[in-house]
């Protein structure tokens, strides 16, 4: 092999290594939010069943992990349970020259979970703040048994962790005693086994534990994280779930897939998994 041919091969190999995965025709990667991972896997499964030439790989790791992969161009889609931060936008602009395109893909009522045997049925946002920051340490202080409260939380790369810290703890730190879990499924398993436990997670999780009604204030009634309450804005800890994409690759199969996710068919799967579909007026925005 002559030197000129070798240079061409080396340059091609470097281009392939540096490029996003969409250079491989019919291949889409999605990475990020553990809240979204079960829904993202279902979307991928159904879509691949209808488009047999398309391969979609879905992994979790947390919203922050998804944004880092988007910046590094090691994923096509970043699944997120929170909005992208200004610093993350800046890194994306540095990496591929544009702000990532944001797609709302579902609604979620972030749920508060306790053990099924816990007699407490509802808590206010103020009580939740005091519990998760360690100011309230016994269930007795919020109408439960005389037993210590055991807090389970998510890792700090989680969008759910950041959303909860911002909207419920008002930016305060979690109690030092909080036990960090690698994903919502693991958190729910821990709560299901621990009669004194409390944790939080997406509405699609919850098997083996029970969710509490949440009161916006002490004077207002407790509200279930139901579809009606979330879509109507009366449940106090609701949020959008998102997918972010480099606009340079938001075309062809990726654009078709994102459009399908927001279609009636894709949104039907949102409901089946346990989250809440986007209102019709948001599906094309």
Q: Would you write up a description of this structure?
A:
This protein has 285 residues and is α/β, with parallel strands linked by helices. It has two domains: 3-108 and 240-282, D-Maltodextrin-Binding Protein, domain 2, CATH 3.40.190; 111-236, 3-Layer(aba) Sandwich (D-Maltodextrin-Binding Protein, domain 2), CATH 3.40.190. Helices cover 38% and strands 21% of the residues. It has helices at 3-18, 34-50, 63-72, 86-96, 125-132, 159-167, 184-193, 227-232, 252-261, 264-273, and strands spanning 27-32, 55-59, 77-80, 101-109, 111-115, 122-124, 150-154, 179-181, 197-201, 209-211, 213-215, 238-245. The strands form three sheets. It has a five-stranded mixed β-sheet. Helix 2 (34-50) packs across helix 10 and helix 3 runs parallel beside helix 4. The radius of gyration is 21 Å and the shape is globular. The N and C termini lie far apart (53 Å). Residues 1-24 have low confidence and may be disordered.
TL;DR?
With 285 residues, the chain is of the alpha/beta class.
CATH topology of the largest domain: D-Maltodextrin-Binding Protein, domain 2
In the CATH hierarchy, the architecture of the largest domain is 3-Layer(aba) Sandwich
Rg is 21 Å
- CATH class descriptor of the largest domain: Alpha Beta
Portion in helices? 25-40%
Poorly predicted segments: 1-24
Instruction: State the CATH superfamily name of the largest domain.
Output: Periplasmic binding protein-like II
Strand content: 15-25%
């Amino acid at each position: 092999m002559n030197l000129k041919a070798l240079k061409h091969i080396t340059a091609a190999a470097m281009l392939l290594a540096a490029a996003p995965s969409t250079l491989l025709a019919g291949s889409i990667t999605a990475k990020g939010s553990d809240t979204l991972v079960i829904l993202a896997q279902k979307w991928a499964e159904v879509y691949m069943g209808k488009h047999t030439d398309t391969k979609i790989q879905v992994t979790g790791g947390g919203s922050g992990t998804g944004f880092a992969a988007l910046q590094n161009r090691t994923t096509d889609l970043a699944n997120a349970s929170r909005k992208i931060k200004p610093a993350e936008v800046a890194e994306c602009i540095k990496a591929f020259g544009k702000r990532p395109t944001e797609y709302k893909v579902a609604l979620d009522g972030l749920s508060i979970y306790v053990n099924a045997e816990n007699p407490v049925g509802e808590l206010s946002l103020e009580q939740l703040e005091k519990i998760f920051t360690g100011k309230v340490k016994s269930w007795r202080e919020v109408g439960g048994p005389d037993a210590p409260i055991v807090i389970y939380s998510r890792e700090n790369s989680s969008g759910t962790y950041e959303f909860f810290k911002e909207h419920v703890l008002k930016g305060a730190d979690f109690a030092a005693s909080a036990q960090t879990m690698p994903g919502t499924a693991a958190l729910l398993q821990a709560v299901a086994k621990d009669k004194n436990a409390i944790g939080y997670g997406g509405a699609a999780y919850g098997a083996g534990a029970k969710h509490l009604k949440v009161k916006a204030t002490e004077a207002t009634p407790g509200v279930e994280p139901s579809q009606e309450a979330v879509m109507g804005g009366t449940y106090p800890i609701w949020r959008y779930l998102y997918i972010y994409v480099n606009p340079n690759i938001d075309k062809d199969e990726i654009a078709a897939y994102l459009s399908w996710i927001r279609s009636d068919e894709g949104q039907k799967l949102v409901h089946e998994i346990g989250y809440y579909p986007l209102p019709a007026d948001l599906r094309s925005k």
